[in-house]
Amino acid sequence: MEIRNLSEKLADPKTFPALPDVVTNIVHEIDLGSISIGNLGKIVQKDVGFATQIIRHANTGAYIAAGQVTTITQAIRLIGFRMLKGFCLTVPLFQM
After folding, report:
1. What does pTM read for this prediction?
2. Taking every annotated instance into account, which residue ranges of this chain make up the domain HDOD (predicted)?
3. Fewer CB within a 10 Å sphere, N or C end of the chain?
4. Which of 93, 87, 90 is nearest to 44 (CA)?
């Protein structure tokens, strides 16, 4: 995507996709600060595509020392709530 095209999209708020319900639920629960990794995992699993992206991210070079991640709860435990929240807020931007 060219810089000019990106700038035009950023200038028009109508071009931003609405956050999926799963993502807004994740962010809300993390902000409340009282959710367990298991319960957060149950929310993430409602969106298989998003859960797959989280697991894939947890298996990148930054986390490879922890070994192979195969479940969403392992991924959340490894990347942490703050990284998961950041991921929730940035991934939809790349789907524009």
Report:
1. 0.74
2. 16-96
3. N
4. 87
